[in-house]
Description:
135 residues; mainly alpha; Purple Acid Phosphatase, chain A, domain 2; 6 helices
Amino acid sequence: xxxxxxxxxLHETRKHxxxxxxxxxxxxxxxxxVTVCGDLHGQLDDLFLIFYKNGLxxxxxxxxxxxxxxxxxxxxxxxxxxxxxxxxxxxxEVHLNRGNHxxxxxxxxxxxxxxxxxxxxxxxKKILKMFQNVF
Length: 135
């Protein structure tokens, strides 16, 4: 995606997240499943495998992602773009919890910042600042 689309997605995600309470309550009935995922750490193949086995988020398929979306793996940006897009499309079915890897100091140490800078030399700093704001 072009940097302006990523920035627009981040802006809309931030606007949405600011409206949510600090604690999310997710309830289900016996006929509904909730898939709980954690620690993707930039491994896009893991996210695709989860969606393959459990289905994509939808009004009938809820997901809770328990943080640590980025760092270590090479596709952190792609994971965040996918998760933030699903969050905006299905705000009642997709829930994102912040992990310790959604922190600037951790991102500096484990590679998310460097990965963004290498990916987008022109807009990398602006995108990184907006990610920090969203986190």
